[in-house]
């Protein structure tokens, strides 16, 4: 029986991951959260313990690791204080005699071998990933696997209303474009890596996403075909980035609106994708090809009515 601690358990990846793990009947899950109400759907499971508390407090984390005899961790932390929180969390894991394996969702890219592209972006929530990956490589007390997703399919859902109302593709992706990835594929990759416990995938980073990189014009064309009317792609310039930030600010705090806008600025500059070799590695991990972005667009448009 694996005792697995799950962070970000109420997120999109976490929710799918939890259901898959519980279906194995071979795990006990400790779901850490800032609000137990968000996890009420799992409250009645005998295989689940929900604990509410501050992940930013390393002593509290150490207590949970000890009390629940955690041997495996899904370490998915983000937020304004991510830099301090993740490194304190790693230290807490090092101090635990029980933790044997950690799965860390990072961002797509070879941050160790070829860091010249994504690492140069000004986007803070990707900027933190390379030093965490480096730190993991130097920790000997537990094994680790890194999952590197590209640009989520589900981002399109956030812009659906803007696309339909303005009849324009609002994400500036440049000429090089971005690989896209389904949340379900990332959840599957994490699921496999957690159960593997470092036996096969220790020290490995698996980038997850489509081999094809979709530029703005091509994405707009996919939406046009699905909707049966023309969607115009916005140009990849500062004016479009400013417009994108305005859209983000409708739903997000200003700090996150700017951060995510800088993500798109990075994509315009360098592109965002995976190599053929990286693609085949994810196929080996998943045991199948990743989901098709084209299928997601058609399904999303159908649900939009």
Automatic annotation (TrEMBL):
<feature type="domain" description="NmrA-like">
    <location>
        <begin position="2"/>
        <end position="229"/>
    </location>
</feature>
<dbReference type="InterPro" id="IPR051604">
    <property type="entry name" value="Ergot_Alk_Oxidoreductase"/>
</dbReference>
<dbReference type="InterPro" id="IPR036291">
    <property type="entry name" value="NAD(P)-bd_dom_sf"/>
</dbReference>
<dbReference type="Pfam" id="PF05368">
    <property type="entry name" value="NmrA"/>
</dbReference>
<dbReference type="InterPro" id="IPR008030">
    <property type="entry name" value="NmrA-like"/>
</dbReference>
<protein>
    <submittedName>
        <fullName>NAD(P)-binding protein</fullName>
    </submittedName>
</protein>
